[in-house]
Design brief:
Layout lengths: L5 H6 L1 H11 L4 H24 L1 H23 L4 H20 L3 H25 L4 H30 L11 H23 L3 H6 L7 H28 L6 E4 L4 E4 L1 H27 L23 H9 L1
Helix pairs in contact: 3-4, 3-11, 4-5, 5-6, 6-7, 6-8, 6-10, 7-8, 7-10, 10-11
């Protein structure tokens, strides 16, 4: 065991901490952040499979609240990003429970990711001499692509849904696509005109130490990642509808899934590991922008000059 290695014990507690960090590179705060993001989704997946979407949504909300409480106890505070994400999860989960329609908890991912992507792009546009121009061009390109894609996309949706609901109905793909696009533009305005900071640098600068160029490129890459995941989420949500049954083949059995079960499986089995791998890969690439921070040197305890109690006792008895 690491704690019992005499070579590490001889070098002191800093060497022991460095060895632990080698095999588990996350701090307590990072670990709780990861669990608070993925734990509720896994809980929802299990409960939904056993008891349906309403029970699964309740499990999502309750586990999200539990994750926030654990974060407060472990970290001692509630970081801003988990607060925002958890609040939106609870809001849209409540809408699903009140209406009995799983569309709300599913579209929440698209709306939040699109808005956050715009927010990241906006912060870069306002502050970054390196990625500022690329950020507003990215937002303009996504806007143009989404608008242009609506005509063929609506034709495809007609074939899938037979008959489209009126525009303004939340089940109409045109409505939800334009809502997601609008939230991205609102996020861009909020990030660029109100917040006016690189969000990741502002939140994580005490945890990770990169140059400003590194933070800008990191944020730009993650903004595109949020765009891609928002698009994928909408595609899966709209293609796999609850009115149909889909077969999932495995070497052990064949399972019949409705659209909501397919969506949850997509989130748990694809998006979650993809997010972790992308974050790990991007962090590895960021090493060339890392700023080395010297480890703190332990200060030896000052000697008070007082005699040990045993010595004092002997001196008093003679």
């Amino acid at each position: 065991m690491i704690d019992g290695d005499p070579r590490l014990l001889a070098k002191g507690p800093i060497a022991t901490m460095s060895a632990k960090k080698h095999w588990f590179p996350f701090t307590a705060e990072q670990s709780v952040n990861i669990l608070s993001e993925f734990g509720p989704l896994v809980t929802m997946f299990v409960v939904n499979a056993a008891a349906g979407i309403k029970a699964g949504t309740w499990a999502l909300i309750i586990s999200t609240v539990v994750a926030m409480v654990v974060m407060r106890l472990v970290v001692g505070r509630l970081p801003i990003f988990p607060i925002i994400a958890s609040s939106i999860t609870i809001l849209f989960g409540a809408l699903t429970i009140m209406t009995g329609d799983p569309i709300w908890v599913k579209i929440k991912v698209s709306i939040f990711n699109a808005m956050f992507a715009g927010f990241l792009f906006g912060g870069l546009w306002a502050t970054s001499p390196i990625m500022g121009r690329a950020s507003w061009i990215a937002v303009a390109a996504v806007t143009g692509a989404v608008v242009a894609a609506q005509i063929p996309y609506i034709e495809l949706a007609k074939g899938l849904m037979q008959e489209l609901p009126p525009v303004g109905d939340e089940t109409n793909p045109l409505t939800t696509n334009l809502v997601c696009l609008s939230t991205m533009l609102v996020g861009f305005i909020m990030g660029g005109l109100v917040f006016r900071k690189n969000f990741f640098s502002y939140v994580f600068e005490k945890t990770f130490h990169f140059t400003q160029e590194g933070w800008d490129r990191f944020t730009y890459s993650f903004a595109w990642f949020f765009v891609v995941t928002a698009v994928l989420n909408e595609a899966v949500r709209q293609i796999f509808v609850d009115s149909r049954t889909y077969e999932l083949w495995t070497p052990w059995n064949t399972y019949d899934l409705d659209g909501t079960s397919v969506w949850i499986l997509f989130k748990v089995a694809l998006i979650m590991p993809l997010s972790g791998l992308y974050a790990w890969f991007l962090t590895r690439l960021m090493h060339k922008h890392r700023i080395e921070v010297p480890e703190p040197v332990p200060v030896p305890a000052k000697s008070t000059g007082a005699m040990p109690k045993t010595v004092q006792a002997r001196g008093q008895s003679t």
